Automatic annotation (TrEMBL):
Top-rank taxon, per record: Bacteria
Name listed for the protein in its UniProt record: 6-phospho-beta-glucosidase
InterPro entries, per database record: GH, GH_1_N_CS, Glyco_hydro_1
Family, as annotated: Belongs to the glycosyl hydrolase 1 family.
PROSITE patterns: GLYCOSYL_HYDROL_F1_2
Gene3D superfamilies noted in UniProt: Glycosidases
A GO molecular-function annotation: beta-glucosidase activity
GO terms, biological process: carbohydrate catabolic process
Length: 481
C-alpha cells in the first residue's frame, strides 16, 4: 500500500516571500513590506528577528527602497512566474501552493472595488499552472495583510477586519472559480507568537497584548468559517482547509511533571485546529481564558457560524519537534519554526538550530488523523541550508536529499498505517526570502536563485541535485523512497 493515485505532489510558497514588485501595478503595502533584514541579530534569536514597533513601521514607510526590506523584492516571481512554473512542471508537480497578496487586490484593504491589475496577474498565474495540469492550492491569508488595516485598526483586533477579509475572499472566489483547493489562514495559531506578522497587531499599541491576540484569533476563526461557507456556495466542488503549525512537543524526561508540561504545549498547539475542525472552543481552552483573565468578545452568532462551517481537511506545516520540562532552568533551548523550545539531545539540528526529526512527522500525522479523522495535507516541510553554486552551474545538495528522503519515508509509513493523506507540498520548491530572518542565504529550494541577502545577483535559476531527485520521487509516486 502506498500513496493514492491522485496524490498531490508539489511545493509551497507565499506571495510576500517570492513575488517582489512590492509597489507595482497598484499594489499597496502589507505587513511583510516593513519586515527588516537584521544582519546583526543572531538568526537563532527569533524574538528579536521579528520584533516590531510603531517607530520601525514609520521608518519603513518613509524608506521607499528595497535595501533593508528583502520581502519587497523577493525573487521577482512577479516577472518570472512563467519560467518558474515551467520548472515546477519539469519536476512533475501535481500541485502548487501559493497565496494571494491581499494588497494586490485591495491596496489598503478597505477599498470599494478591487484592483483589476492584481486580479489579472493571478488569473494568468493560475492559467499557467492549469496549462501544465498543476492544481493550485491557494492560501487567502499568508502573513501579508494590508499595512493600512494594521495602522488604522490594530489589525485583526478589530471586528471590522472580518468584513474586509470576507469581501477580499469573495473577489478571489469569483475571480478564480476554477481553483478547487483553498486554505484560509496560514499557521493561524501563530497569532500568539508573532502577532504583527500574522494578525497586524502592533504590540506597543496594545494595552493588553495577550487578550488582543486571542481576540484577533477569534475574529480569524469567524472569518475563516464565513469564507468556508462562501467558498462552498460559489465554488460547489471546492474543498477548504485550515492550516496549523504542527509544533510536536515531547516531555524532556518521563517525570510526570515534564509529561504534563508537554501535554499543555500540545493542547495549546491543537487549539486552533480543534475550533476549525470540531466547530467549538475546547473546554480546556475556555478554562485557560478564565484562569488568565482573558475576556474574549464572542457572540452567539459567532459561535453558530463556527459550528456550522467546519473545514473539509486539515493542512499543516512540519519542520521540527521540541521538548518541554516543568523546570526549564537547565534545559538547553533552540530555535524552530516561529518558536523557541527545548533542544532534543537525540536529534541533529540545522545551521539555524532547527531539530531534524523525521519520525516526528510520522507521529504528527498519526496524532492529527487519530484526533480529527479528516483528510490531511502536508503543505510545508523542508530544511533551510546554505548552498554553493559551482562554477559549472550545479548545486550539490545531498544534505537536502537526505532530509527529504527521511521525512518522506516516514510520511509513507504513516499512510501505510491508515492515515488519509491528500498531498505533500515542500517548502519552498524554489529559493525565497525566509519568513523569520528575511534571508536569501537560508535556502530551501530544489531550484537555486542567484540572489544574496543584500539583493545582489542575476536572479538566474539553476537546478540543484535535489531537483532531479524530487522529479524521480514524483514520477514514481513515492514508490521507491
Amino acid at each position: 500500500m502506498g500513496f493514492r493515485d491522485d496524490f498531490l505532489w508539489g511545493g509551497a510558497v507565499a506571495a510576500n516571500q517570492i513575488e517582489g514588485a512590492w509597489d507595482t501595478d497598484g499594489k499597496g503595502m502589507s505587513v511583510a513590506d516593513v519586515a527588516m533584514y537584521k544582519a546583526n541579530v543572531d538568526v537563532k534569536d527569533y524574538q528579536n528577528q521579528v520584533k516590531i514597533t510603531t517607530e520601525n513601521i514609520q521608518k519603513a514607510i518613509a524608506d521607499k527602497t528595497v535595501a533593508d526590506y528583502p520581502k519587497r523584492r523577493g525573487i521577482d516571481f512577479y516577472h518570472h512566474y512563467k519560467e518558474d512554473i515551467a520548472l515546477f512542471a519539469e519536476m512533475g508537480f501535481k500541485a502548487f501552493r501559493l497565496s494571494i497578496a491581499w494588497t494586490r487586490l485591495f491596496p489598503n484593504g478597505d477599498e470599494a472595488k478591487p484592483n483589476q491589475a492584481g486580479i489579472d496577474f493571478y488569473k494568468d498565474v493560475i492559467a499557467t499552472l492549469k496549462q501544465y495540469q498543476i492544481e493550485p492550492i491557494i492560501t487567502l491569508s499568508h502573513y501579508e495583510m494590508p499595512l493600512n488595516l494594521s495602522l488604522k485598526l490594530n489589525g485583526w483586533v478589530s471586528r471590522d477586519v472580518i468584513d474586509y477579509f470576507v469581501k477580499f475572499s469573495r473577489v478571489c472566489f469569483e475571480s478564480f472559480s476554477d481553483v478547487k483547493y483553498w486554505l484560509t489562514f496560514n499557521e493561524i495559531d501563530s497569532v500568539t507568537r508573532h502577532p504583527f506578522t500574522s494578525a497586524g497587531i502592533i504590540p506597543d499599541q496594545s494595552k493588553h497584548l495577550e487578550q488582543d491576540e486571542y481576540q484577533a484569533l477569534h475574529h480569524q476563526f469567524v472569518a475563516s468559517s464565513m469564507v468556508t461557507k462562501l467558498c462552498h456556495e460559489l465554488i460547489p466542488d471546492s474543498q477548504v482547509g485550515c492550516m496549523l503549525t504542527k509544533l510536536t512537543d515531547y516531555p524532556n524526561t518521563c517525570a510526570p511533571e515534564d509529561v504534563l508540561a508537554s501535554f499543555n504545549k500540545n493542547t495549546m498547539n491543537y487549539f486552533c485546529a480543534d475550533v476549525q475542525v470540531k466547530g467549538v472552543y475546547p473546554p480546556l481552552i475556555l478554562n485557560f481564558f478564565e484562569r488568565n483573565h482573558i475576556q474574549i468578545t464572542m457572540t452567539n452568532e459567532d459561535l453558530a457560524i463556527i459550528k456550522a462551517n467546519p473545514v473539509d481537511f486539515i493542512s499543516f506545516s512540519y519542520y521540527m519537534s521540541l521538548v518541554s520540562a516543568s523546570d526549564e532552568t537547565n534545559l538547553e533551548l533552540t530555535s524552530g519554526n516561529t518558536v523557541v523550545g527545548g533542544k532534543n539531545p537525540y536529534l541533529e539540528t540545522t545551521e539555524w538550530g532547527w531539530s531534524v526529526d523525521p519520525v516526528g512527522l510520522r507521529i504528527s500525522l498519526l496524532e492529527l488523523y487519530d484526533r480529527y479523522q479528516k483528510p490531511l495535507m502536508i503543505v510545508e516541510n523542508g530544511m533551510g541550508a546554505q548552498d554553493t553554486l559551482n562554477a559549472d552551474g550545479t548545486i550539490n545538495d545531498q544534505y537536502r536529499i537526505d532530509y527529504f528522503q527521511a521525512h518522506l519515508s516516514e510520511m509513507k509509513k504513516a499512510v501505510e498505517m491508515g492515515v488519509d493523506l491528500m498531498g505533500y507540498t515542500s517548502w519552498g520548491p524554489i529559493d525565497l526570502v525566509s519568513a523569520g530572518t528575511s534571508q536569501m542565504s537560508k535556502r530551501y529550494g530544489f531550484i537555486y536563485v542567484d540572489e544574496d541577502d543584500a539583493g545582489n545577483g542575476t536572479l538566474k535559476r539553476y537546478r540543484k541535485d535535489s531537483f532531479y531527485w524530487y522529479q524521480k520521487v514524483i514520477s514514481e509516486n513515492g514508490a521507491n523512497l
